[in-house]
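Progress note, sequence design subtask.
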């Protein structure tokens, strides 16, 4: 009886799917946005072009949140070091996950204007991979990269450059429009300053997410 139910459900599903008609109707103004930005990812075109001010305030809110979390945890005692338990197989897999997260980060931020992705997503992907590695393998080693690669300096520099590029876009819209039109539609080297903003936002989100997570782990301990 269960098999007949599954077959019936599958037949109904296939019938509905085969009979369905999808009409690609773009909302009013969307085609104009695509034409102006010269990139196929309409989500990126909106949040880094037509709603750029909203995106900047989101970056500011995220920065304030990260600062508040790290300030709060700085007043708490640190957990004892050397108490982390690691397992050989988990260490291998988590190291591979960290390497994969770096690759995905680069892919998502570099192609975020022509395919699904972007700076916010890329930053979260990279932070998740590094945090997972630190929790399951060697947190002290994962935490040391923050100082070794000058992540704090990169975070602050990316924020300043973001504000500078946004100011350039606001005060020189004609130049920005020429940069948008100069690239080939659908190519990585297109979109004017939009890919650069994606990369900078990705760095900012990664650094803030990692700092908040590491401060929490430093005070509460690893798994």
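Output:
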């Amino acid at each position: 009886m269960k098999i007949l139910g599954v077959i019936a459900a599958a037949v109904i599903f296939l019938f509905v799917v085969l009979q369905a008609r999808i009409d690609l109707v773009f909302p009013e103004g969307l085609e104009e946005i695509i034409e102006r930005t010269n990139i196929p990812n309409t989500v990126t075109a909106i949040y880094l072009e037509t709603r750029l001010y909203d995106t900047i305030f989101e970056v500011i809110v995220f920065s304030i949140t990260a600062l508040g979390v790290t300030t709060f945890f700085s007043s708490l005692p640190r957990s004892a070091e050397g108490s982390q338990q690691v397992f050989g197989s988990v260490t291998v897999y988590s190291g591979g996950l960290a390497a994969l997260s770096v690759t995905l980060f680069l892919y998502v931020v570099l192609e975020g204007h022509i395919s699904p992705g972007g700076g916010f997503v890329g930053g979260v992907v990279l932070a998740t991979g590094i945090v997972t590695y630190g929790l399951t393998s060697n947190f002290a080693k994962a935490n040391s990269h923050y100082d070794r690669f000058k992540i704090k300096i990169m975070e602050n520099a990316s924020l300043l450059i973001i504000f500078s590029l946004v100011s350039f876009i606001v005060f020189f819209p004609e130049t920005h429009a020429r940069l948008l039109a100069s690239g080939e539609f659908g190519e990585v080297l297109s979109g004017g300053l939009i890919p650069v903003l994606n990369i900078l936002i990705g760095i900012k989100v990664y650094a803030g997410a990692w700092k908040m997570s590491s401060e929490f782990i430093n005070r509460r301990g690893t798994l």
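Residues 161 and 167 are 10 Å apart (CA to CA). Work on this subtask will continue into the next period as scheduled.
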